[in-house]
Amino acid sequence: MSQKLTLTTTSLLNTTISNATDTIYYDIQTPEHEPHLTTIQRLDSRTNRYNLTGTIQSQAGNPVAVSVLGEPAKREDQWVKKAIGGLPGERCEEHIP
Length: 97
Hints:
Blueprint: E1 6-11, E2 14-18, E3 25-29, E4 37-44, E5 49-57, E6 65-68, E7 74-75, H1 76-79
Antiparallel strand pairs: 1-2, 2-3, 3-4, 4-5, 5-6, 6-7
């Protein structure tokens, strides 16, 4: 079953992704007092409480780190796999049959 999701932004630091009935509802925030930390929370429609889904840490001089569902943070390049062909101008060394 597919869902139509709506992306709303209350500011450049806060975003919401949800469906029409809010049964899928994610709150993404980067607080002004912690600009290096972005949190992703999912609203549980049954309990009306937020569950921390993931974090993205980006501090100057350090690689971006991603943590999902309470797992230890991993560097972005370990968490995100490049598509075949990579980014424009990059040469892809890995071939996936």
